[in-house]
Amino acid sequence: MRVQLLLAAIALGLTCPAALKGEFKVEPDKDNVVASRLEGDWVLEPALTKRLAKSTERSEGGEAISFKSDPTVAAKIPAKYETPLAGRRIYMAGTVTFKREGKSREQVFILIEHKGNPHVVWFRERGGDPLGDAESFNVMLAVAVERDSDLLFIGGDFNNQPFSAYRRLAVAMQP
Hints:
By secondary structure, the protein is an alpha+beta fold. Helices cover 18% and strands 37% of the residues. The protein has one domain. The chain has helices spanning 2-15, 17-21, 33-37, 46-53; strands at 40-44, 64-69, 92-100, 103-114, 117-126, 129-142, 151-154, 164-168. It is globular.
């Protein structure tokens, strides 16, 4: 019986390194297009979103969305997510701020790959736990020659939903 338990623990550790360490961690990859350019402030591109979605009412990110990288937040993700995140690389973690109708809310997020797609998983309060519930959406990023011209596309959590388009807010020049 002990041998079986030991083998099960080893197998779990191989499929979910976070399970043995008790925390999730970011494993960045400079060649991951989305992770390398997602950080920043983005505003809805109504005309392009309407072309893609036939409406601008249902944009996943709202009127504006901001991503801030902070790899330390990955360690705050509760252990209850070990099974759904087993074997998944976390390319980026931080906070995402959704801005809609003059209100904003900041949430913890991670960037993973899901079924071959870049996928943002964000966490919200549920039952008194600040990270008690997870939501997600697919994300694509079109890199431009000038960083300020990058385009961000945010879809639903399934591939049958249209994307909303966002453009990067101009990056302030440092004096």
